[in-house]
Amino acid sequence: MTPFAILFPDLSPEIFSIEIGSFSFALRWYALAYIAGFLLGWWIIMGLMKRPALWPAERAPMAPGKVEGLLTYVILGVILGGRLGFVLFYQPAYYLAHPSEILRIWEGGMSFHGGFAGVIVAGMIFCRRHAVPPLQIADAMALVAPIGIGLGRVANFINAELWGRPTLQPWGVVFPGPQAQACPWDWPMPFCARHPTQLYEAALEGLLLFVLLAWLVWRRGWLKQPGAITAVFVAGYGLGRFLVEFFRQPDAQFVTLANPMGHVVSLGPLGLTMGQMLSLPMILVGLGLLFRRRRA
Predict the structure, then answer these.
(1) Which of 28, 158, 176, 263 is the most exposed place for a label (fewest CB within 10 A)?
(2) d(CA 66, CA 60)
(3) What is the C-alpha to C-alpha distance for residues 13 and 9, in angstroms, rounded to an integer?
(4) What is the mean pLDDT of each run of 10 residues along the chain (296 residues)?
């Protein structure tokens, strides 16, 4: 291996597996990322509800004991919305022909934008049933969402999936598999290194966005303006995802074109990837909501 790329480490998608007779169980990094994200989110939101001074009129929007109920709604929203979003946004023709596979979430295939929509619906139902202010609950969920996003992207890297476009940069990663090694015929290297866009997203949409939101909550008191934290999260995630899509391998169902560098990429309407088309409204909505909340 030359010094111009990084060989993908020998990582297994499974942390451990157990087989006893006909029974088998495997704990995967992707599942652990979801579990850890939900638990850390629950712990942080519990802490927020115990600090009324952070909220408008120094009154928390709900009792700490209701956070477990909120978590249940969020889990359902993430799983159902994420799966249906993947089916509708990315592979509708395939799942229309194979409807029995829609529920096979253990085989992979989740959409952030679908999960985001699912959480919105689940959160609205929870707020209505428990008579709690929806914008304040949205702010609490927005604060912790980057944790789960960041952990999920690290799990994507471990699974060697959702990698980026071919690159000659020295931090390019040589991912395993024939699809990852399918570079242009005139590629100057004997191997195909790609942008580790999973880690780009983990840094931008996960770590960096969480640090920004945490600073606004605990140092700037932005929870006192309902909806402001939600607006920053929506715009921040949309912007981060939009930028990373320039380096991420676009979805294969789009029309294949060649960019000026000779790399084969897949582009949708207006030359945008599906991720960019779904993120652009998030940026606009987030900025619009932020402008309104900051002027209120």
Answers:
(1) 176
(2) 12
(3) 12
(4) 76 81 76 92 96 96 95 92 85 82 71 88 95 96 96 93 91 92 82 95 97 97 95 96 91 47 50 85 94 75
Beta bridge partners of 20: 23
**Contact between residue 249 and residue 163 where contact means Cβ atoms under 8 Å apart:** yes
pLDDT of res. 207: 97
pLDDT computed for residue 30 by the predictor: 83
Give me the pLDDT at residue 263, please.
45
**Short-list 275, 273, 255, CA closest to 264:** 255
- pLDDT, residue 15, reads 83
Under a CB-based contact definition with an 8 Å cutoff, are residues 92 and 111 in contact?
no
> Is 76:122 a contact under the CB 8 Å cutoff?
yes
| Helix, strand, or coil (residue 17) | strand
pLDDT for res 96: 84
Q: Which one, of 249, 283, 101, 273, lies nearest residue 167 by Cα?
A: 249
Q: What is the DSSP string of 90-148?
A: T-HHHHHH-GGGTT-GGG----HHHHHHHHHHHHHHHHHHHT--HHHHHHHHHHHHHHH
36: helix, strand or coil: helix
State which amino acid sits at residue 111.
S
Q: Which amino acid is at 211?
A: V
Task: Kindly state the helix (H) or strand (E) to which residue 286 belongs, with its residue range.
Answer: helix 274-295
SS3 assignment, position 20: strand
Tokens at 109, concatenated: 């295939």
Domain coordinates of the chain in residue numbers? 27-172+193-295
pLDDT at 108: 63
Two structure tokens written together for 35: 């579990």
From CA 135, how far away is CA 151, in angstroms rounded?
Answer: 25
